[in-house]
Amino acid sequence: MITPNRLQKGDTVAIVSTARKISKEELNPALQLLESWGLKAILGKTIGAEENQFAGSDDLRAADFQKMLDDQKIKAIWCARGGYGTVRIIDKLDFSAFKKNPKWIVGYSDVTVLHSHIHNFGIETLHAQMCLEIENKTAETGDSIRKVLFGEEYSINFEGSGPATSAGAQVIKGTLIGGNLSVLYSLIGSASEMKTDGKILFIEDLDEILYHIDRMMMNLKRSGYLKNLKALIIGGMTEMKDNKVYFGKTAEEIIVGLVKEYNYPVISGFPAGHINDNRALIFGREVELNVQSSIINIQFSSSKNRKSAI
């Protein structure tokens, strides 16, 4: 996998919205954070733009992102917010210049479209908090983004919680991939779908009915996406809903139950997703997952930063 170049103080980060509308005022905390890191920010035309729920039309959002992809002075693109809309522009984008000069693409949730699509080019991306509401997240949330962008050593230590099938001490190595479950599910069969065999899959989701979680996981299972994983990591399953007739299981219990026949560890309670502590994850990076009972460590391997054509 190709690692985008590390940032240096004085570099420029572009902020655009590929999905829902957002005002410049809502970005002030993120702009202040970038400034504190010694970075400059440039706002795309989608910031403040509006077409119903979107940050401007599909053509505007595509053109805005394309401009930042092609501009070699831009060293990273930080998505302003999620919602829905990235999939509407993905086929309008030309990644030719990006493949020759990769840069960090930062975001999560709806930005899973970009993570999955770009992973197939062999380029790493950064699953991390959007600009919106970063001031309401833990200090570790923002600092984890900074560490990755500046190429510092990075690992995550946490205590797993909830149901899990992993037992005893284990060390697993593999490439980390994934993102929002609903988005990954929606990409199956498209040019943006992600190959999962032999990889460590991370999933998270927000505001879903529990039987929808079961239905999506059943689809991934029957399609073969869950069979040959090295490990499965469950992040935030936030604000899940149920029907009047209860499904009878939590989202985590549904997921663990559907993969219990497979011989790989399942970790729940991971600090990433639509939760207060949303740690950055380097998708496409080789990681070492060290499981010691309920204490988990994920170490991201050092990778020589380079910019090379594919």
From TrEMBL:
CDD domains tied to this protein:
Peptidase_S66
* Residues covered by the LD-carboxypeptidase C-terminal domain: 173-289
Q: Name one GO biological process term.
A: proteolysis
UniProt cross-references to Pfam families, sorted A to Z: Peptidase_S66, Peptidase_S66C
Q: Which UniProt keywords apply?
A: Carboxypeptidase, Hydrolase, Protease, Serine protease
Record GO terms (molecular function): carboxypeptidase activity; serine-type peptidase activity
Q: Which residues form the LD-carboxypeptidase N-terminal domain?
A: 13-128
State the similarity comment: Belongs to the peptidase S66 family.
Q: What is this protein called?
A: LD-carboxypeptidase
